[in-house]
Protein backbone atom coordinates (compact mmCIF):
# COMPACT_ATOMS: atom_id res chain seq x y z
CA UNK A 1 0.00 0.00 0.00
CA UNK A 2 1.43 3.38 -1.06
CA UNK A 3 0.26 6.19 1.22
CA UNK A 4 0.94 9.80 0.23
CA UNK A 5 -0.01 13.30 1.27
CA UNK A 6 -1.12 15.15 -1.88
CA UNK A 7 -1.58 18.92 -1.85
CA UNK A 8 -2.52 20.70 -5.07
CA UNK A 9 -0.90 24.06 -5.79
CA UNK A 10 -3.14 26.58 -7.49
CA UNK A 11 -0.95 28.00 -10.24
CA UNK A 12 2.52 28.26 -11.79
CA UNK A 13 3.60 31.20 -9.63
CA UNK A 14 2.72 29.27 -6.45
CA UNK A 15 4.71 26.30 -7.74
CA UNK A 16 7.70 28.54 -8.48
CA UNK A 17 7.53 30.16 -5.03
CA UNK A 18 7.54 26.78 -3.31
CA UNK A 19 10.34 25.55 -5.56
CA UNK A 20 12.43 28.57 -4.54
CA UNK A 21 11.73 27.97 -0.85
CA UNK A 22 12.76 24.33 -1.11
CA UNK A 23 15.81 24.90 -3.30
CA UNK A 24 18.35 24.49 -0.42
CA UNK A 25 16.95 20.99 0.12
CA UNK A 26 16.96 19.89 -3.54
CA UNK A 27 18.18 16.35 -4.30
CA UNK A 28 17.33 15.84 -7.97
CA UNK A 29 14.95 16.69 -10.78
CA UNK A 30 13.30 13.87 -12.72
CA UNK A 31 11.73 14.09 -16.16
CA UNK A 32 9.02 11.43 -16.31
CA UNK A 33 6.75 10.25 -19.10
CA UNK A 34 3.75 8.24 -17.90
CA UNK A 35 1.91 5.97 -20.33
CA UNK A 36 -1.16 3.97 -19.28
CA UNK A 37 -2.66 0.69 -20.48
CA UNK A 38 -5.87 -1.21 -19.95
CA UNK A 39 -7.14 -4.56 -21.17
CA UNK A 40 -8.86 -4.42 -24.55
CA UNK A 41 -12.16 -5.14 -22.76
CA UNK A 42 -11.46 -2.76 -19.85
CA UNK A 43 -10.49 -5.69 -17.62
CA UNK A 44 -8.29 -3.44 -15.44
CA UNK A 45 -10.30 -0.24 -15.19
CA UNK A 46 -13.50 -2.16 -14.47
CA UNK A 47 -11.69 -3.49 -11.40
CA UNK A 48 -10.30 -0.06 -10.42
CA UNK A 49 -6.80 -0.90 -11.62
CA UNK A 50 -4.43 0.46 -14.24
CA UNK A 51 -1.09 -0.49 -15.76
CA UNK A 52 1.57 2.20 -16.23
CA UNK A 53 4.92 2.46 -17.95
CA UNK A 54 7.04 5.31 -16.60
CA UNK A 55 10.04 6.43 -18.63
CA UNK A 56 12.73 8.54 -16.97
CA UNK A 57 14.70 11.37 -18.60
CA UNK A 58 14.48 12.60 -22.16
CA UNK A 59 16.52 9.69 -23.53
CA UNK A 60 14.31 7.13 -21.70
CA UNK A 61 17.37 5.49 -20.17
CA UNK A 62 15.24 3.68 -17.60
CA UNK A 63 11.67 2.48 -17.31
CA UNK A 64 9.42 1.11 -14.55
CA UNK A 65 6.25 -0.94 -15.00
CA UNK A 66 3.59 -0.36 -12.31
CA UNK A 67 0.24 -1.82 -11.42
CA UNK A 68 -1.97 0.49 -9.36
CA UNK A 69 -5.25 -0.74 -7.89
CA UNK A 70 -8.10 0.33 -5.61
CA UNK A 71 -7.13 4.00 -5.28
CA UNK A 72 -8.68 6.06 -2.52
CA UNK A 73 -8.02 9.75 -1.93
CA UNK A 74 -9.60 11.74 0.87
CA UNK A 75 -8.71 15.05 2.54
CA UNK A 76 -5.36 15.18 0.78
CA UNK A 77 -4.28 11.64 1.67
CA UNK A 78 -3.97 9.05 -1.10
CA UNK A 79 -3.90 5.29 -0.62
CA UNK A 80 -3.34 2.88 -3.48
CA UNK A 81 -2.13 -0.69 -3.89
CA UNK A 82 1.01 -0.57 -6.04
CA UNK A 83 3.40 -3.14 -7.50
CA UNK A 84 6.46 -2.16 -9.53
CA UNK A 85 9.27 -3.79 -11.44
CA UNK A 86 12.03 -2.53 -13.76
CA UNK A 87 11.19 -2.82 -17.45
CA UNK A 88 13.46 -2.67 -20.46
CA UNK A 89 13.04 0.86 -21.88
CA UNK A 90 13.50 -0.23 -25.50
CA UNK A 91 10.80 -2.88 -25.08
CA UNK A 92 8.70 -0.30 -23.23
CA UNK A 93 8.79 2.05 -26.21
CA UNK A 94 7.87 -0.82 -28.51
CA UNK A 95 4.88 -1.62 -26.25
CA UNK A 96 3.66 1.98 -26.47
CA UNK A 97 3.70 1.75 -30.28
CA UNK A 98 2.36 -1.81 -30.37
CA UNK A 99 0.56 -2.71 -27.11
CA UNK A 100 0.25 -6.36 -28.11
CA UNK A 101 3.91 -6.67 -27.21
CA UNK A 102 2.94 -6.52 -23.53
CA UNK A 103 1.30 -9.93 -23.92
CA UNK A 104 4.48 -11.24 -25.51
CA UNK A 105 6.42 -10.01 -22.45
CA UNK A 106 4.25 -11.94 -19.96
CA UNK A 107 6.71 -14.84 -19.85
CA UNK A 108 9.53 -12.57 -18.64
CA UNK A 109 7.54 -10.28 -16.32
CA UNK A 110 6.20 -11.34 -12.94
CA UNK A 111 3.95 -8.29 -12.82
CA UNK A 112 2.43 -8.84 -16.27
CA UNK A 113 1.86 -12.50 -15.44
CA UNK A 114 -0.01 -11.43 -12.32
CA UNK A 115 -2.07 -8.90 -14.31
CA UNK A 116 -3.08 -11.55 -16.82
CA UNK A 117 -4.00 -14.11 -14.16
CA UNK A 118 -5.67 -11.77 -11.66
CA UNK A 119 -7.61 -9.58 -14.08
CA UNK A 120 -8.17 -12.07 -16.87
CA UNK A 121 -6.77 -9.99 -19.71
CA UNK A 122 -7.66 -12.07 -22.75
CA UNK A 123 -5.90 -12.91 -25.98
CA UNK A 124 -6.86 -9.53 -27.42
CA UNK A 125 -4.38 -8.13 -24.94
CA UNK A 126 -3.82 -4.52 -23.97
CA UNK A 127 -4.64 -1.10 -25.36
CA UNK A 128 -2.60 2.07 -24.85
CA UNK A 129 -4.58 4.93 -23.30
CA UNK A 130 -1.91 7.61 -23.77
CA UNK A 131 -0.45 9.64 -20.95
CA UNK A 132 1.33 12.80 -19.82
CA UNK A 133 4.74 14.19 -18.90
CA UNK A 134 5.80 15.18 -15.41
CA UNK A 135 8.71 17.26 -14.10
CA UNK A 136 9.42 16.20 -10.51
CA UNK A 137 11.66 18.05 -8.08
CA UNK A 138 12.76 15.82 -5.20
CA UNK A 139 13.68 17.34 -1.83
CA UNK A 140 14.77 16.18 1.63
CA UNK A 141 13.12 18.56 4.10
CA UNK A 142 12.60 18.19 7.86
CA UNK A 143 13.10 14.44 7.58
CA UNK A 144 10.48 14.16 4.82
CA UNK A 145 11.00 13.28 1.18
CA UNK A 146 9.01 15.82 -0.80
CA UNK A 147 8.14 15.61 -4.50
CA UNK A 148 7.09 18.79 -6.25
CA UNK A 149 5.36 18.00 -9.54
CA UNK A 150 4.57 19.96 -12.68
CA UNK A 151 2.30 17.69 -14.73
CA UNK A 152 1.85 18.57 -18.39
CA UNK A 153 -1.35 17.26 -20.00
CA UNK A 154 -2.59 17.93 -23.52
CA UNK A 155 -5.25 20.20 -21.99
CA UNK A 156 -3.11 22.11 -19.49
CA UNK A 157 -0.69 21.94 -16.57
CA UNK A 158 -1.30 21.25 -12.90
CA UNK A 159 0.98 21.39 -9.87
CA UNK A 160 1.15 19.19 -6.79
CA UNK A 161 3.23 18.57 -3.68
CA UNK A 162 3.48 14.91 -2.66
CA UNK A 163 4.98 13.22 0.38
CA UNK A 164 5.01 9.46 0.88
CA UNK A 165 4.28 8.87 4.55
CA UNK A 166 3.87 6.29 7.30
CA UNK A 167 1.93 8.86 9.36
CA UNK A 168 0.05 10.93 6.79
CA UNK A 169 -2.12 12.95 9.17
CA UNK A 170 0.90 14.11 11.15
CA UNK A 171 2.98 14.89 8.07
CA UNK A 172 0.06 16.67 6.40
CA UNK A 173 -0.18 19.05 9.36
CA UNK A 174 3.57 19.76 9.17
CA UNK A 175 3.30 20.55 5.45
CA UNK A 176 0.16 22.64 5.85
CA UNK A 177 1.82 24.75 8.53
CA UNK A 178 4.89 25.26 6.33
CA UNK A 179 2.80 26.29 3.33
CA UNK A 180 0.55 28.60 5.32
CA UNK A 181 3.48 30.30 7.08
CA UNK A 182 4.99 31.07 3.68
CA UNK A 183 1.79 32.20 1.98
CA UNK A 184 1.60 29.21 -0.36
CA UNK A 185 -1.96 28.67 -1.58
CA UNK A 186 -3.06 25.05 -1.85
CA UNK A 187 -6.02 22.68 -1.86
CA UNK A 188 -6.34 19.02 -0.99
CA UNK A 189 -5.94 16.89 -4.10
CA UNK A 190 -9.24 15.15 -4.83
CA UNK A 191 -8.20 12.97 -7.77
CA UNK A 192 -5.01 11.23 -8.86
CA UNK A 193 -2.98 12.45 -11.83
CA UNK A 194 -4.38 9.52 -13.80
CA UNK A 195 -7.87 10.67 -12.81
CA UNK A 196 -7.07 14.14 -14.12
CA UNK A 197 -5.73 12.62 -17.34
CA UNK A 198 -8.86 10.50 -17.83
CA UNK A 199 -11.20 13.41 -17.11
CA UNK A 200 -9.60 15.52 -19.85
CA UNK A 201 -9.75 18.68 -17.75
CA UNK A 202 -7.79 20.35 -14.96
CA UNK A 203 -9.16 20.26 -11.39
CA UNK A 204 -11.24 23.27 -10.33
Description:
- This protein has helices at 12-22, 89-97, 101-104, 110-119, 168-181, 193-199; strands at 2-9, 26-39, 49-56, 62-74, 77-86, 126-141, 144-153, 156-164, 186-188.
- By secondary structure, the protein is of the alpha+beta class.
- The chain has one domain: Hypothetical Protein Pfu-838710-001.
- Strands 1-5-4-3-2-6-7-8 form an 8-stranded antiparallel beta barrel, surrounded by 5 helices.
- The protein is elongated and about 55 Å long.
Task: Quickly list its features.
Hypothetical Protein Pfu-838710-001, about 25% helix, eight-stranded antiparallel β-barrel
As a percent range, the share of strand residues is: 35-45%
Count of individual helical segments: 6
Quantity of strands, as a count: 9
Weakly predicted, low-confidence segments: none
When the domains are counted, the total is: 1
- Under CATH, the homologous superfamily reads Hypothetical Protein Pfu-838710-001
| CATH class identity | Mainly Beta
**Termini gap:** 28 Å
Estimate the helix proportion, in percent. Answer: 25-40%
What is the third-level CATH name, the topology? Answer: Hypothetical Protein Pfu-838710-001
pLDDT average, as an integer?
95
Indicate the radius of gyration in whole angstroms: 17 Å
What is the molecular shape?
elongated
Oligomer: single chain
CATH architecture: Beta Barrel
Which structural class fits the helix and strand makeup?
A: alpha+beta
Q: Strand order of the main beta sheet, please?
A: 1-5-4-3-2-6-7-8
Amino acid sequence: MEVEVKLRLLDASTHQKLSDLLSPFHLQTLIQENIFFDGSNSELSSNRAILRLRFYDVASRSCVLSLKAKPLISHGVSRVLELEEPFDPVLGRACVAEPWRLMAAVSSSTLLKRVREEFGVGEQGFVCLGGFRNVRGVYEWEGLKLELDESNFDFGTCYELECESLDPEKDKKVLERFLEENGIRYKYSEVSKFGVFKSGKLPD
